[in-house]
Amino acid sequence: xxxxxxxxxxxxxxxxxxxxxxxxxxxxxxxxxxxxxxxxxxxxxxxxxxxxxxxxxxxxxxxxxxxxxxxxxxxxxxxxxxxxxxxxxxxxxxxxxxxxxxxxxxxxxxxxxxxxxxxxxxxxxxxxxxxxxxxxxxxxxxxxxxxxxxxxxxxxxxxxxxxxxxxxxxxxxxxxxxxxxxxxxxxxxxxxxxxxxxxxxxxxxxxxxxxxxxxxxxxxxxxxxxxxxxxxxxxxxxxxxxxxxxxxxxxxxxxxxxxxxxxxxxxxxxxxxxxxxxxxxxxxxxxxxxxxxxxxxxxxxxxxxxxxxxxxxxxxxxxxxxxxxxxxxxxxxxxxxxxxxxxxxxxxxxxxxxxxxxxxxxxxxxxxxxxxxxxxxxxxxxxxxxxxxxxxxxxxxxxxxxxxxxxxxxxxx
Length: 413
Description:
By secondary structure, the chain is of the alpha/beta class. It is 41% helix and 14% strand. The protein folds into three domains: 9-219, Rossmann fold, CATH 3.40.50; 232-319, Orthogonal Bundle (Tyrosyl-Transfer RNA Synthetase); 335-412, Structural Genomics Hypothetical 15.5 Kd Protein In mrcA-pckA Intergenic Region, Chain A. The chain has helices at residues 13-22, 45-56, 87-104, 122-125, 130-137, 143-147, 150-157, 164-167, 169-184, 196-210, 247-255, 262-269, 274-280, 288-304, 309-319, 349-355, 362-370, and strands at residues 9-10, 28-34, 60-66, 117-120, 186-192, 215-219, 232-233, 236-237, 335-339, 374-376, 379-380, 397-402, 406-412. The strands form three sheets. A six-stranded mixed sheet has the order 1-6-5-2-3-4, sandwiched between helices. Residues 322-326 have low confidence and may be disordered. Keywords: Aminoacyl-tRNA synthetase, ATP-binding, Ligase, Nucleotide-binding, Protein biosynthesis, RNA-binding. It comes from Triparma laevis f. inornata.
C-alpha cells in the first residue's frame, strides 16, 4: 500500500501492521459511502481500490452504505448544505452505488479473499433514542475538540453557515465505527484525508467506551499534475455506472491522462505489478502513449469487464483514423441515443450533444460549436441552431464529435 501511494495518515501505523501480522482471524476493515447520488464517480475509486487490495491480501472488507447519515449530509469539504433526500431517493441511490462495490469487491465467496459484507447504518442509527444517545455518548465528545478539526474550521472561516444537523455528522460517523467494532469486529476504518477528523473521533470513542484499540487510515486526496481535482472534466463528473457514462468514455478519460500522472495512476488504479510499472516509468516521448493505453485498458477492464476492451479499442482506432470519406468503421463502443424519424429536421444538434453527454449543458454545447470543436464525423458545425438532416446519417447513424477524442452516435429509428 505504501509503495503504490495509498498511505497518507494512520492513527498507529506500526501497531496496525503488527496487528495484521499477528492475528489468526482476518482483519476487518470498513469503508463508508453516503448515498447522495445514484452512482459513485472516479474520485471514490481510490478508496475502493484500497479495499480491493486489502481483501486480496487476506483482510475482510465491510462496505457501509449510509442510509441514515445520507439524511444528514457530511459537511466535509462543502461550502453549502447538501440537498435533503427522502427515503425513496436514498434507496434508489443505494441500489445504484452498490453495483460498483459488487464489481470490485467479492461478496459471494472466497475467490479473492475473505467474503465481504455490506451493511447499512440505518439498521442502528434509525432506531436511536435522542435522549438516551446523548446520555450514553454525549459526554465523550467536546465542542472544543470538534471545532479543532480542519473540515469545521474551513467551513467557519468561509463564513458559510454550518447547521447543528451537519455538526452532528462526525458524531454519527464515530458511532458507526463503535457499532461496527461490536457487530462485525471491525478494527480499521478507511477514508480520504479530508475524513481524518471524523475517523479519529470514531477511534477515540471506541477506545473510551469499549477500551478497544481500533485504527484509522487515510489516503491522500488525488489531484492531477496541473492541480485539478481528480475526476472533474469539462464534460462533468466521471461516473462509474455505465448508464451514466459509457465504457468508451470511461476508457477515453484514462487514455487522456497527462504524461506526468500516468505512472502514478497505474500504481493507484490498476493491479499491474509494481515491477512492471517501474519499467514503464522509463518510457519517454511518444512511447508514454503505450502506458496510457495500458492504464485505460486495465482501469476499464476492472470496472466494466475485460470483454469490452476489444470493441473500445476498435472504436478508438476507427475514430482517430480521420476518415475523409463516409462514416467510421466501428462505432459499437460509443454512447448512443435514438432519434425518431418524425423528429428529423426539427432536432437541433445542440440537444443531441447534450443527450450524448458530449456537453454538460446547452450553453456548453453552443460554446463547443462556437470554438470549432463540434463536428458531424469530420465536418464542422458552425451554426448553434443547426438541425440534423437525413444527409447527416450514414446507414442510419450520425456520429457527433466533441473535439478530437470524444464522440457519440445518434441512431435514426
